[in-house]
């Protein structure tokens, strides 16, 4: 068997203990990378790192806290010697409900995770990658970041902003040999999606069936589908791909297969995952 596509590379994946993050951690390790699993769910992160052995390390990380994000980057350098890939993936659904009923507190809490967390990841990755003269920064946006009406208001605003920040930072860091891209997943079978669709974060089978019905391809997306996109963008195969957003949604946005937006109705609230309690 030949070398993996990420052989010798070192990555940090925020929100890496579950969902898309955990799927990406596993795929990165399969392709030869060593990975810091950065997540607020420290027990789950530690369990995943233990499963993967010497190729992984866990770091309790609240992406809204700059010291935590800095520590995750520093752990990668201290444990594995460098940082080649920063994947800003941690996320929550956040504030839901009509705009007139959304509280400023719920809005700010959503932005703190979905946008401030990405900014901090980019900042501290750049701190290491610029002197190194190479690196890849990836961030999770959403189909709600490329088209309106697919998610709650705060989530949609933040995910659009992630793409804008990606393009802006890519322009700055390209001369330093650093590529900066985003990934926009469509509906993907994760605990967060299951909670939003069925109110049960463990109902993955029902969630997959629901997503499949609305999918232009007729089947649901899973974390490994997004992880495979991340592997490509992190690898040298994507050496000429920069300042872009790779949409992975079975053609949902391109084919216009969109139903009514359920997040703009009902009681305003904040929906959280990754160790954060409902507020």
Beta-strand fraction estimate: 15-25%
Structural class: alpha/beta
Q: Would you tell me which CATH topology of the largest domain applies? A: Rossmann fold
Tell me the overall shape: globular
Low-confidence stretches: 273-279
Q: Just give the CATH class of the largest domain.
A: Alpha Beta
Number of helices: 9
Biggest sheet, strands in spatial order?
Answer: 3-2-1-4-6-7-8
C-alpha end-to-end distance: 49 Å
Please tell me the total number of domains. 2
The share of residues in helices is 40-55%
CATH H-tier superfamily of the largest domain: NAD(P)-binding Rossmann-like Domain
Question: Overall pLDDT, averaged?
Answer: 93
Query: What Rg, in angstroms, do the CA atoms define?
Result: 18 Å
Sheet having the most strands? 7 strands, parallel
Q: How would you spell out the order of helices and strands? A: EHEHEHEEHEHEHHHEHE
List keywords for this structure.
single chain, 279 residues, alpha/beta, Rossmann fold, 2 domains, 7-stranded parallel sheet, two-stranded antiparallel ribbon, 9 helices, 9 strands, 44% helix, 16% strand, globular, disordered C terminus
């Amino acid at each position: 068997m030949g070398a993996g596509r990420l052989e010798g590379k070192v990555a940090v994946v925020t929100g890496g203990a579950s969902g898309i993050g955990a799927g990406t951690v596993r795929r990165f390790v399969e392709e030869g990378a060593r990975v810091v699993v950065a997540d607020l769910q420290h027990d789950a992160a530690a369990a995943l790192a233990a499963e993967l052995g010497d190729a992984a390390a866990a770091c309790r990380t609240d992406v809204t806290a700059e010291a935590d994000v800095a520590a995750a980057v520093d752990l990668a350098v201290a444990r594995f010697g460098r940082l080649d890939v920063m994947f800003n993936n941690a996320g929550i659904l956040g504030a839901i409900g009509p705009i007139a009923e959304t509280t400023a507190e719920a809005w700010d809490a959503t932005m703190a995770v979905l946008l401030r967390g990405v900014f901090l990841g980019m900042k501290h990755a750049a701190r290491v990658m610029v002197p190194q003269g190479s690196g890849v920064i990836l961030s999770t946006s959403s189909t709600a970041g490329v088209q309106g009406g697919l998610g709650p208001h705060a989530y949609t605003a933040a995910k659009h902003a992630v793409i804008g920040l990606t393009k802006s930072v890519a322009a700055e860091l390209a001369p330093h040999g650093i590529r900066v891209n985003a990934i926009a997943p469509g509906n993907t079978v994760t605990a967060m999606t299951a909670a939003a669709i069925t109110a049960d974060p463990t109902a993955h089978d029902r969630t997959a069936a629901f997503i499949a019905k609305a999918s232009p391809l007729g089947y649901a997306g899973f974390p490994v589908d997004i992880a495979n996109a991340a592997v490509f963008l992190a690898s040298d195969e994507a050496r000429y791909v920069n300042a872009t957003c790779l949409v992975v949604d079975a053609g949902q946005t391109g084919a216009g297969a969109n139903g009514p937006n359920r997040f703009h109705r009902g009681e305003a609230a904040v929906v959280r995952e990754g160790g954060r309690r409902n507020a």
